[in-house]
Amino acid sequence: MRKLKRRIRVKKLIKATIAVIVIFGLLVYLNNASFLARPIDDRPVLAAHRGLSQDYSREGLNNETCTAAQMLPTPHDYLENTIPSMQAAFAAGADLVEFDVHRTTDDYFAVFHDWTVDCRTNGTGVTREHSLASLQSLDIGYGYTSDGGKTYPFRGKGVGMMPSLAEVLDTFPDRNLIIDVKSRDRSEGELLADRLAALPPQRQARIMVYGGDRPVSVIREQLPEVKTIWLRRLKHCLTRYIALGWTGYVPNTCDRSMLLIPVNYARLMWGWPNRFLQRMKKVDTQVFLVGDYRGEGFSQGFDQPDRLKDLPANYAGGIWTDRIDLIAPAIKETG
Q1: How far apart are CA 33 and CA 41, in angstroms?
Q2: What is the pLDDT of residue 295?
Q3: Most buried one in 83, 148, 216, 242, CB count within 10 A?
Q4: What pLDDT, on a 0 to 100 scale, did the predictor assign at position 297?
Q5: What is the dihedral of CA 24, 28, 30, 32, to 10 degrees?
């Protein structure tokens, strides 16, 4: 009799445990169900990485690669990080344009990607060890070649085309901009914060800054209107959210940020896409999808129009692309 009662109690306990697990699973599911959350907008937000630029081969890409020497055939003559390339990107349909900055020896900011000028220009040396005037005298189209150096189609066409940060801000006073700080020098962040602090708060709110942790953390400390992110903070935000986001919890390292998420990892985000995007919007954070991450240390932009079919229906988050000239028209066609 005792054994029978014990078996009955065990069965009841098992049933109760299963019921609790099922109810708990159902609550977690409903709490993160994307279909129960409305899209945050009626279309994706498009960010043009470095404006409209020359495409390049990613084969063998590493931190030392001179991408200008791996140029691919591209149906336009724009060079990255120039005023014309940014104007063309906005005209093509970009909502934001990203560009890179380096501090100069005379305390300006030059808009240029590479740590040294040797690859793209006819100059030599570390970019931040030049004055602004010196940098702006260079030919930024000098090093571009698609045939191993047999021809250089942009030589002579890029003289004086490297803009300053001030020129970009003056040219696009009402546009959304993303600034990539290429150094890890805290003093560079202090100088940039000083420059951006001169802008009205509503203008600051249209600017995002990412890059080196030390300079970008200064921007975060001093300019609450500006969204910021750096790699360690991004990793902390996403790993904590993957671990705890099923509860609806959003780590404070996700607040007031811009998140770059490889498209092949996006489904790991609890509530993807609508619920996740709503949660990020509530903490004043913009999410951008980038291309697949394969573990090699690089994830290129979302650049192939045929990949748009992989996006969730009614996706209204951000898309980070190196080919705004391809992605914007494709979005318009599918929208």
Answers
A1: 18
A2: 64
A3: 216
A4: 54
A5: 180
52/65 Cα distance (integer angstroms): 20
Query: b/e per residue, 157-189, with b = 16+ CB within 10 A?
Result: ebbebbbbbebbbeebeebbbbbbbbbeeeebb
CA 203 – CA 170 distance, rounded (Å)? 11
Domain annotation for the chain: domains and CATH numbers: 38-334 (3.20.20.190)
6 pLDDT above the threshold of 80: no
Instruction: Please state, in angstroms and as integers, the Cα–Cα distance from residue 3 to each residue in 6, 10, 11, 12, 120, following that order.
Output: 5, 10, 12, 14, 83
Q: What is the DSSP letter of 100?
A: E
Q: Residues 94-135: pLDDT tens digits?
A: 999 999 999 999 999 999 999 999 999 999 999 999 999 999
- Provide the whole-model pTM: 0.94
Residue whose structure tokens are 């724009």:
78
User: What are the tens digits of pLDDT across the range 66-89?
Assistant: 899 999 988 899 999 999 999 999
| Residues counted in the chain | 335
Which of 83-97, 166-180, 321-335 is predicted least confidently?
321-335
Q: How far is CA 7 from CA 10, 18, 20, 21, 51, in A?
A: 5, 16, 20, 21, 70
**DSSP structure class, residue 86:** H
- Angle 111-155-131 (CA atoms, 0-180°, nearest 5)? 35
User: Tokens standing for 190?
Assistant: 């202090």
Amino acid at the residue 18: I
